[in-house]
Write a structure and sequence with these properties.
- The structure holds two protein chains of two kinds.
- Chain A contains 18 helices and nine strands.
- In chain A, strands 1, 2, 3, 4, 5, 6, 7, 8 and 9 form a nine-stranded antiparallel beta sheet that branches.
- In chain A, a hairpin with a 7-residue loop joins β8 and β9.
- The longest helix of chain A has 40 residues.
- Chain A starts with 7 loop residues before the first strand and ends in a 12-residue tail after the last helix.
- By secondary structure, chain B is of the alpha/beta class.
- The chains are: A alpha+beta, B alpha/beta.
- At the A-B interface, loops of A face β3 of B.
Chain lengths: 541, 246
């Protein structure tokens, strides 16, 4: 209650302002004494940590490391921390003391922190995204009675690696109850010196000064297109964007920072291939053949590494499926997969660093940044909106027809085919997202996502069973030693458990596919992609 | 919120020194604390370097319309605020006399502060009047500093009699020895004698201290600058004892 009566005013101060001059001005113009206890002034180097896609920053959370302390705190608490340079129960969400900082949530030991980080960063690794040397000074402003009437904290931050040597300056004026008139005078003096309340968040200004990026990486294509934009212009723009995302993931992939770099590398590549396959009419036939081959070759190179990554990530899930007695038997399998993964990673890394790869990806990037495609083709000049409506409706109708025929006896192959069709529809929606009214559009995406997640689990289980079955077959072919017998037994147990789960998942998929064929989804699709009211601009069809 | 008062009919017994240092101890212990300086001399306010309230509240101090919060000032210490004295406080009795329910007015005007503070300490002027009766009504405990001398004992007797005559709760009274000197045999004898006579006496005792005498020079609570361990221990002990009784 009481703290509400006291004000804390935080303002940015232009870089050229000398804090010492402000001290002089307070005495000269306001006749206030300034008492500075230099012993309490502090200097600290603080490292900011986040994932590649700034998972913490997105949630207004900040992970920091100072000497051997790791803290996770919210944005308003971060300012408190920087001004006080002391972690407290108030500004500290979680704090651990650690010599070697863990990268992944599962490497932290504190249960609360683990579960919080699990939600925030998922499979991503925390890495150093920048650092600053922070110094603060506390000035007590006193009247002629030597009574403190306000406290001003001056905060300055400088980047260690900043060549231009920009600095960030900020003040916090803490009022003392009953001295509002004096507070206004002090604030006015600071404002006269150039201090101001920034439009954007203070932390963003701080990061800007410290050269810490605040642009969030998102693998989803976000392009703004107009309904009349020719489709080829759109596809070129989209592929160019996805290629740049591919390039952005390369360093993390090569550095083996976390498995999401490869995942996103592959998602971006898949998106490019989907554009070329689904909108092939915008390019010449021979160009489509060539591009399919070239992008296909790039994708192939990382298939095996991704399979191994996924398998390792699911290790605990596999173990939990087996009774304790059979769990030990699986350990040689994971050891083997880990070794395979290490070898495969080196192969992929060398390939990414090879002249052959660099030349190819540079070349492709150049093609699409220079408006790729020669001569007019069937759709090259057609407005985006026309094609969007034709393609989305056609794809949806195909899925809808198939869902009407779904029964409990539908074959696994048919379910897989529908999964691929749904994926194609989802990609189309991503490509043309900016053309449609967002409310309904998001509802469609949500419905599709629920279905796709389910179908994805079903497919993953099929892949895993095939993978393990293949592994078991190989094991049986080679001579079965005593150690291998235990492994074979565990593999048998695991395949049985996974097959059981797959059967259950099959039922879930069938139910959800039937639901997706219901009239409410049809209506929503019609409202979103046929009715002109829901288009940003009226269709030209 | 609890309210304690430092009160004595006699002046110069260490009321203000106790009020200031107990307020400091209370805030230091984590309590949101407000020290109200009811004495027009404004000694408590002076010790905290807070100037007097020059303007009388528009509706008068004891009016329910008065917003006391506007007159409160932050001290140089965390969690400790001061409501400074004003020279117009000398007219408290006249103000109260003209009002209905004149002995419970203070209670009413302090009520809005109950969510803000854990403890309010009233530093009272040395007289028995309507203001004092308001203090007796409002306070959970009335701390009475007593110098172990005959005169001080006499004023304590007067106060006890007043409480009895006017049906105030005697259990609210908490006298304690103040400015006591270990080397003074007369003080030692008096302490024994008075304690026998008044079992309500607190166990804590505040001894005579040069550091307290120097508060006027430092203009800070003695505990904030004094090296004397026994002094700070004595006030902390007194504070703890009071807190267990309210």
């Amino acid at each position: 209650m009481k703290s509400n009566l006291q004000q804390n005013i935080i303002q940015l101060v232009p870089e050229h302002i000398d804090f010492n001059n402000i001290k002089v001005d307070l005495l000269r113009y306001l006749n206030f004494n300034v008492v500075e206890n230099e012993e309490t002034n502090q200097v600290k180097t603080i490292h900011f940590l986040d994932t590649f896609n700034l998972s913490c920053f997105k949630q207004k959370l900040f992970a920091l490391k100072h000497t051997s302390h790791f803290n996770l705190m919210s944005d308003d608490r971060l300012l408190d921390y920087l001004f006080s340079m002391q972690a407290s129960a108030d500004n500290d969400l979680h704090r651990v003391e650690t010599e070697q900082l863990p990268k992944f949530w599962w490497q932290f030991t504190q249960p609360k922190l683990r579960s919080m980080l699990k939600k925030i960063i998922g499979l991503r690794a925390l890495t150093d995204i920048g650092e600053g040397i922070f110094s603060n000074r506390q000035l007590k402003i006193q009247n002629e009675e030597n009574k403190t009437i306000a406290v001003v904290i001056l905060l300055e931050a400088r980047s260690l690696s900043n060549e231009q040597n920009n600095s960030f300056k900020c003040i916090k004026i803490q009022s003392v109850r009953g001295y509002n008139k004096e507070l206004k005078q002090i604030l006015k003096l600071f404002q006269k010196s150039g201090s101001f309340t920034p439009q954007q968040s203070i932390i963003k200004s701080l990061f800007h000064s410290l050269n810490i990026r605040t642009e969030i990486f998102d693998i989803k294509p976000q392009i703004n297109i107009e309904p009349q934009t020719p489709v080829r212009t759109m596809t070129n723009q989209l592929i160019d964007l996805m290629l740049s995302k591919i390039r952005q993931t390369e360093p993390g992939l090569i550095g083996d920072v976390d498995t999401e770099f490869l995942h996103h590398y592959r998602v971006a590549l898949r998106m490019v291939r989907a554009v070329i396959t689904q909108l092939k009419e915008v390019y010449q036939v021979n160009d489509v053949v060539d591009l399919k081959l070239r992008f296909g070759n790039l994708a192939k190179k990382t298939n095996h590494l991704r399979d191994l990554d996924v398998f390792i990530l699911d290790k605990n899930k596999y173990l939990e499926l087996l009774p304790t007695t059979l769990q030990v038997g699986l350990l040689p399998l994971f050891q083997d997969i880990n070794e395979q993964r290490d070898k495969e990673f080196v192969r992929v890394k060398n390939w990414l660093l090879s002249d052959e790869y660099i030349h190819e990806i540079d070349n492709l990037q150049q093609l699409f940044s220079n408006n790729f495609g020669s001569g007019e083709t069937l759709w090259s000049e057609t407005p985006c909106l026309d094609i969007a409506i034709i393609k989305i409706n056609k794809r949806y109708k195909k899925i809808n027809r198939a869902t009407q025929l779904i029964t409990k006896d539908t074959s696994d192959e048919e379910i897989h085919e529908l999964r691929i069709e749904c994926k194609k529809l989802r990609y189309l929606l991503y490509f043309f997202a900016s053309l449609f009214e967002q409310n309904n559009f998001k509802k469609v995406i949500k419905k599709l996502k629920v279905l796709q997640d389910s179908l994805g689990i079903f497919n993953d289980l099929s892949v895993q069973i095939d993978f393990l079955q293949h592994y078991l077959n190989q094991l049986i072919k080679s001579s079965l030693s005593q150690k291998n017998t235990a492994l074979a037994a565990s593999l048998g147990g695991l395949i049985t458990a996974l097959t059981e789960r797959q059967n259950q998942q099959r039922q879930v998929c069938i139910e959800q596919l039937i639901q997706f064929g219901h009239t409410d989804v049809q209506l929503l699709m019609n409202q979103t992609f046929i009715s002109s009211d829901n288009l940003k601009t009226e269709s030209t069809i | 919120m609890k309210i304690i008062a430092l009160y004595s009919i006699k002046g110069g017994v260490g009321k203000t020194a106790a009020a200031v240092n107990l307020a400091y101890t209370s805030a230091e212990s984590g309590n949101e604390t407000l020290l109200i300086d009811l004495d027009p001399q404004g000694a408590s306010s002076y010790y905290f370097r807070v100037g007097e309230n020059k303007k009388a509240p528009k509706h008068g101090f004891f009016s329910v319309k008065t917003k006391l919060t506007k007159q409160i000032k932050g001290s140089n210490y965390s969690k400790l605020d001061i409501l400074p004295a004003s020279f117009y406080f000398r007219n408290f009795d006249l103000m109260l006399d003209s009002m209905t329910k004149s002995t419970t007015r203070l209670n009413k005007i302090l009520a809005p502060l109950k969510d803000e503070y854990d403890l309010i300490i009233l530093d009272c002027p040395p007289s028995i009047n309507l203001l004092a009766e308001n203090v007796f009504h409002t306070s959970d405990k009335i701390l009475v500093p007593v110098i172990p001398t005959t005169l001080s004992e006499r004023t304590l007797a007067q106060l006890v009699k007043f409480f009895k005559d006017n049906d105030y709760e005697l259990s609210k009274l908490a006298p304690f020895f103040s400015m006591a000197q270990k080397s003074n045999q007369h003080h030692i004898n008096m302490i024994q004698e008075i304690e026998k006579k008044y079992p309500i006496f607190m166990k804590s005792l505040i001894g005579f201290s040069i550091a307290i005498e120097k508060m006027g020079i430092h203009r800070e609570p003695a505990l904030s600058y004094a090296d004397s361990r026994s002094l700070s221990q004595a006030y902390r002990h007194l504070f703890k004892e009071v807190m267990t009784k309210i």
